[in-house]
Design a protein that fits this description.
The chain has seven helices and twelve strands. The protein is α+β, with helices and mostly antiparallel strands and 328 residues long. The chain has a seven-stranded mixed barrel with strand order 1-2-3-4-8-9-11. Strand 3 and strand 4 form a beta hairpin. The longest helix has 16 residues.
């Protein structure tokens, strides 16, 4: 009944409430709108509004040594890659936003590498995975990012820590001690890209973090402010070459690099036949495979961003920006 009412509303809107249009025309209009909705091309009112867009939460920022040949597959030819000895600086930005224009959501930004933008340099995102449809649409259309919808499956396990000292040991012997205290969590995040009814595992991210103590922000590291300029665009959703800036204010502290593992081996997956298993790897598109390669590259530094507030400005279009598209 709801679908029928929606269709009649479409027809009435197109005809101004009049029934003077022929039936075939009304049917064609309704079918076309249904097609646009199915393809994800239907115009919807964005909840983002005008920039700057504010995001609040926490994040893990990890830098990797990425092979230059891998990074170049994502970066337009007009840019010169910042590299040394065959490697560039890439990595990922794993964030959990508890306040944003699109509400609560998770985001994984896979950073292919750094390109020259004299007198400084800018990052280039290889892939952006979010578990929010509105955030995905905004990233694609307004920021020119290679955004994809994904599923973030999280498991948090408390990490017990043994207390030290003779007094604690004595109290424990007589049964009144409390030698175990919980001050850290082990966070396990499985990221799976979702395209319609199909899904593909991207990676598993496992890291240790301190339990948040709101009254002890000084233990979360110094409060700093920084700006992270980035290039984007030249995708199927936004063919222009764009430049935008993220201004970040947060408490930063060093962390042990997260352990990254790729998709499960094909032999461990359940399937109907061995033939399907042997060809499944070939069905992964090049962009996804190379993004996984970036995630699996060698980590060199990890930073925790707590009390994060990120302000993103609307991108500007660079002149003479339309050219062949890099790997999506």
């Amino acid at each position: 009944m709801k679908q029928k009412t929606t269709c009649l509303w479409f027809l009435t809107r197109q005809t101004g409430g009049s029934s003077s249009k022929p039936f075939w025309y009304l049917l064609a209009v309704c079918s076309f709108k249904a097609y646009l909705k199915f393809m994800g091309l239907e115009e919807t009112k964005s909840c983002y509004g005008r920039s700057p867009w504010i995001f609040k939460g926490s994040a893990l920022y990890q830098l990797h040594l990425v092979k230059a040949e891998t990074a170049r597959a994502f970066i337009p030819k007009k840019f010169r890659l910042v590299e040394a000895f065959g490697y560039t600086l890439g990595g990922f930005f794993l964030a959990n936003y508890d306040d944003s224009p699109a509400g609560v959501f998770d985001e994984l930004v896979v950073i292919a590498g750094i390109v020259w933008n004299p007198p400084t340099s800018c990052a280039w995102a290889a892939r952006v995975l979010v578990n929010n449809e509105e955030a995905c649409h905004h990233g694609r259309k307004d920021v020119g990012l290679p955004s994809q919808v994904a599923r973030f499956s999280k498991r948090i396990t408390p990490v017990p820590r043994q207390t030290k000292g003779k007094i604690g040991g004595f109290l424990n012997m007589i049964g009144v001690g409390n030698t175990i205290c919980h001050s850290k969590d082990c966070i396990d995040v499985q990221v799976t890209e979702v395209v319609g009814p199909a899904s593909s595992d991207i990676c598993n991210i496992k890291f240790i973090t301190d339990v948040t103590r709101p009254k002890f922000n000084k233990w979360m590291g110094p409060l700093i402010t920084m700006s992270l300029p980035s290039f984007s665009g030249q995708t199927e959703y936004n063919p222009n070459l764009l430049k935008y800036s993220c201004r970040i204010a947060c408490r930063v502290r060093g962390a042990k690099p997260a352990k990254i593992s790729g998709p499960s081996s094909l032999k461990d997956r359940n399937s109907a036949s061995k033939t399907a298993d042997s060809t499944a790897e070939q069905l992964l598109d090049k962009g996804r495979s190379l993004s996984i390669s970036v995630m699996l590259s060698k980590p060199i530094l990890a930073l925790e961003f707590n009390c994060l507030e990120m302000q993103v400005e609307a991108p500007t279009i660079l002149p003479n920006s339309t050219s062949s598209l890099p790997v999506a």
